[in-house]
Amino acid sequence: MGENHPLTPSTWRDRSLLQLTFHSLLSRDWQATARYAALLPNHPPPATLQSVVGPHSREISHLLVHIGLGIVQPRIDPLQVSTIHRAFEKLQTPPLDLANRLGMALHFAQQDAEAKALFQKGLST
Q1: What is the pLDDT of residue 58?
Q2: 1 vs 5, 11, 91, 116, 119, CA distance in Å?
Q3: 8: Cα separation from own chain's centroid
Q4: What's residue 69's pLDDT?
Q5: Number of H helices and number of E strands within the chain?
Q6: pTM for the whole structure
Q7: Range 3-16 burial, b when 16+ CB lie within 10 A, else e
C-alpha cells in the first residue's frame, strides 16, 4: 500500500476512491478532489487504476489539456494547481505530460521548484 495510507489494502476502497477522485476532477470540485486523492495510495494497483480510469482516458486527457490551457493566468490559486497536480499524479499521468500541461500554471502559482522537479522527473523517465 502507499506510504500515505496506514490501512490494510482494499481493492474496493481504492476503486471507490479512484471513482470519487475522477468524478471530482471532472466536476472541477477541487476541495473534494484534494480530500479523495489524499486518501488514495501513492501507487494504486494498475488493474484497479485501469478498470476505473482506462475507459475514461480520453476524458482525463481532455480535462488535463483544458485545465493546462485555461489555468495559466497571472493570478492563480496555488492550492488549486497543487490539487490538480497531485490528483493527476495519483491517476499515474506520465510526468512529462503533467509538466507540459501544468508547468506554466505552477510557475504562475509561484511553485517554480515544483515545476522544475516535475520537468526533471518527466525528462528522466
Answers
A1: 81
A2: 7, 11, 15, 28, 26
A3: 23
A4: 62
A5: 7, 0
A6: 0.66
A7: eebeeeeeeebbbe
The letter for the amino acid at 29 is: D
87, 120, 61, 40 alpha-carbon torsion, rounded to 10°: -20
How far apart are alpha carbons 56 and 120 in whole angstroms?
Answer: 28
Q: What is the DSSP letter of 56?
A: G
**How far apart are alpha carbons 37 and 48 in whole angstroms?**
15
Interatomic CA distance for residues 77 and 43, integer angstroms: 26
pLDDT in tens, 11-48: 888 889 988 988 898 888 989 999 998 998 888 888 88
